[in-house]
Amino acid sequence: MAEDGALYDFCGSPLWDTNHTWNSETPEFTPCFERTVLVWVPCGFLWVFAPLETHYVLRSVDRLVPWTWLSISKLVGSALLLMLQLIDFFYAVHKWRIGEDVYCVHFLTPLVIFVSIFLQASWVLIEKKRGFQSSGYLFIFWLLLVICGIPEYGSYFVSIQDQWTETESLTFGTYMVYFPLIVLMLIFNCFGDATPLHLDYPKGERPCPENGASFLCRITYSWLDGLFWKGYKNPIKETHLWDLSYENASRTVVTVWDKNWRKTTAKAYKKFWDNFGKGESHTSATCTNNATHVEITGTAGNKEHYLSILPTMVRMFAPSFLMGAFLKLIHDCLQFISPQILSLLINFSESDGEEPMWHGYFYAVIMLACAQLQSFILSQYFMRMMLVGLRVRTGVVSAVYRKAMKISNSARKESTVGEIVNLMSVDAQRFMDLTTYVNMIWSAPLQIAIALYFLWDLLGPSVLSGLVVMIVLIPVNGALANKMKQLQVQQMKNKDHRVKLMNEILNGIKVLKLYAWEPSFENQVIAVRNKEVKILKQTAILNGGSNFIWTSTPFLVSLATFATYVNLSSENILDAKTAFVSLALFNLLRFPIAMLPMLITSLVQANVSLKRMNKFMNANELDPNSVTRENTENRPIVIENGTFAWEHGEEDSKPVLRGINISIPKGSLVAVVGGVGAGKSSLCSAILGEMEKISGRVNIKGNVAYVPQQAWIQNATLENNILFNQTKQTAQYDASLRACALQADIDMLPGGDKTEIGEKGINLSGGQKQRISLARAVYADADIYLLDDPLSAVDSHVGKHIFEQVIGRTGLLKNKTRFLVTHGLTYLPQVDKIIVLKDGIITEEGSYKELLERKGEFQEFLLHYLIAGSDEDDDLEDLEDIKLQLKSTLGDDVIQKQLHRYKKESESERSIDSESKDGGPRRGSKRTSESDKGKLTVNGTSEKKVGDKLIEAEKAETGKVDFGVYKYYIQAVGILSTLLTLLFYALSQASTMGSNVWLSKWSEEDTNDPKTRDMYLGVYGALGIGQAICILGGSFSLSFGAVDAGAILHADMLHSVMRLPMQFFDTNPVGRLINRFGKDIDTLDNVLPWTLRSWLLCFFTVCGQDS
């Protein structure tokens, strides 16, 4: 009573009057309630959530929204509202001064509204400066203000009819202006403002309309209307889709991922040193300067240190995940309001007019509003979680890709191509799929607990029997989950093996077809696939059992609860309220319980994928500090006492290069010669940092361009292969083409330099590929050029042209530092220095004349060259010059004897193995590669026009799915399995409907006769058991049918691919085919059965509700 007196003194009326509000035929709030609670709620929201809005504003990367009519209107409206509140405040002051009754609320309420609207106007200006086009925070404020203002607005009209005093005319007038203004401000906030002037992320050609959409458009998804209408009229294609927004772009996601991954590695490095020396330690650690990688192997202090990507994902996506969890929490709480309103609605229907009629309408409106609010919140939750999953997948794929670029050579032996492909496709997808439903880990127990709480309130201790049923089933599902995890590990190993085998087959398909080996390799793949199918069937049995348990759990809980309830006391009668409210709560139990088996399966799969990912991310990397880049050195390339191996470890650390000492002056041309296996290419790799440096020092000063022995060609135009994402400088580009003798080839091509090059340069000759690779390096304009035998694949006259125009003293690279690995000894007199390698050791170095005079390894190499050159019809003038130089130093007799001896040795080696290579230079591919010159026109592609695509674009069906696709899949599943699945799920839904109808009939009985009670209870139990058995049968028939369909479709696809003509493989990338055998087969095996099961349950449930 004291509180009521205090509030009366504050407001001049009571805060709440039940008779006036709830028990009245014309309900209305008290004036005190309207001027306090209904004002403070929206204003309180504005102030409470101001820190959160500050966080979002500070995170904004865009700046300066231009002035528009919308932003000006918001400020003008805010100014008018501020004026109205000042008028109300000073009017109250005036009334107080003249002695009229004025209460504190008349002073406080205008001040609260004034300060809140002033804060809102400040946010409008701040958000305009920070690039905000729409604010959900302000939209909700105005919405709450309008909703809370409706009762007071209606009260003024009621007061006109009842009584009217002249002193209230000003207050009435200000509110009549105030309320339309706040409605107008709400309308203003329903629209998005103009695009900011300064965008951190470029808009692109097709900017996403979501970025500029208002908050209302976002929560209602009306920004998608244009796409929906376009899809209604025509099939949606990829070209119709918009560009990614800033927060979903790879650039943004990868940047944040790297930042958090560095924190993980730094923490692991610190933890290693903190534990160093504690207990028995067998741990070694390596940390790069920029802390992007830490290698930790072994144990320290008897505790494993293992880098995991999980902390990185948690740090990166925790805020978005927590926001989604908050939305899920609100949704879970809202869905339990409906059963309570249903209880009130049943009471209202049974009241026989004792309650006012508007109560029924009120309950119905509240149920509708609650359902719509649930829909809004749940849709936002799923969108946010799916976007988080997409970002997780983006981060994981980028991390795996970059790790694959850096792993050491020893790690490459353990990580197969099939494993890396599966990591980026299957395992990354596992994380994305799990993210959507991972909140069910806490949401499902919460929903079950809330449902049991309300059931306890309704049925009392009888609920404990249902709780016992649920607890008993938990260990059973734990055992099933553990077994499924073991099977998942085996499944992924078999999948890796199969994808690796398919990758090898597709890369060597030409050889397979030449030798007609298709059936043999097809059988190998089928054998691995059969192992997968065997495990999939075992998993299907476990999934079927899990589905059976969780599907029957809601019924068993309800059966045990109802049976206990009616048997506890004769007074416990199952009336309509108890039956239907309980049934609504039991139905709410169905979703979390039904989701648990899928969640368990997803968690098991994601856990296996996480371990596989962590194993790969912890693989050894190439040491980025093996090659230093100190600019204080005078010479571009310096190696001191260098010893290098391809791998590290006790077994694989045999040095390939030993005691290497090289110092190359700036702008010089250095040639490296030696026999096959001498270590010339390895020396290039050592300079690039791609070998394990066992000892010594390597320093590079300047940028490096590398031309490998085997040219790397992209599936792009010839121009793009040369530019390599650099800006085109026409003069430099044309000079590179002329110097690399490509202009004649381009003139022959139908599209010129715009001609598309097939995958791996399939439509180029070996010489053309090598010259394009060289032109790419020349155009890069680097400081240092590592040229690994670039002239071996071209004809001698083309080689001379390239040497003179590119590499030699008058070429384009004359002022660059050139490191040339070559067997073309005719060019050696023109180089500044020659390095001779043998068995990984530098045996000689010096100028051409100096090496000739020493009569060492270099002379022997020249003799080998003369033998090979005479067999291969090399340039006779060059050979004669070399012979004359040797004769002048060794003598004619000695030269003839040596040539005769080397020739006999060469012939004896060829008689033993005609295909083996001798110790001389590798020149076998030299003549054959350039003989295919003009290959682009010979292969029938001369009729291609500019802009035509050699590689066919991947086609996807648009519009509705053709019935033939369903028919084909049904035939693969099997007619019997299909019919049994449909029959079982139909019977299951029929049993569910029957149990609900039977429960309704049971609730109409007013007696608790044991015989009648047992009859109803028995029939209800029989219907529930029938439903569970049907679900079990449907799960088995669907799972086994889907596994058999996957096996059949895989076998058919493999059979078809193996018998396709070579033209197909020339015009379709290998990666596309690998995706069919990797990701798509995984979808058939694991995703499609769950999707079909969910669809069938939904379909028959809808049919059952309609009937």
From TrEMBL:
It is found in: Vacuole membrane. Belongs to the ABC transporter superfamily. ABCC family. Conjugate transporter (TC 3.A.1.208) subfamily. It comes from Homarus americanus (American lobster). It is an enzyme of class 7 (translocase). Pfam families: ABC_membrane, ABC_tran, TMD0_ABC. It is a multi-pass membrane protein. Residues 904-935 have a biased composition (Basic and acidic residues). The keyword Lipoprotein does not apply. Keywords: ATP-binding, Membrane, Nucleotide-binding, Repeat, Transmembrane, Transmembrane helix, Transport. Residues 901-940 are annotated as: Disordered. It catalyses: leukotriene C4(in) + ATP + H2O = leukotriene C4(out) + ADP + phosphate + H(+). The chain crosses the membrane at residues 37-58, 70-93, 105-126, 138-158, 170-191, 360-383, 434-456, 462-482, 547-568, 588-608, 968-987, 1025-1049. SUPFAM superfamilies: ABC transporter transmembrane region (SSF90123), P-loop containing nucleoside triphosphate hydrolases (SSF52540). This is ABC-type glutathione-S-conjugate transporter.
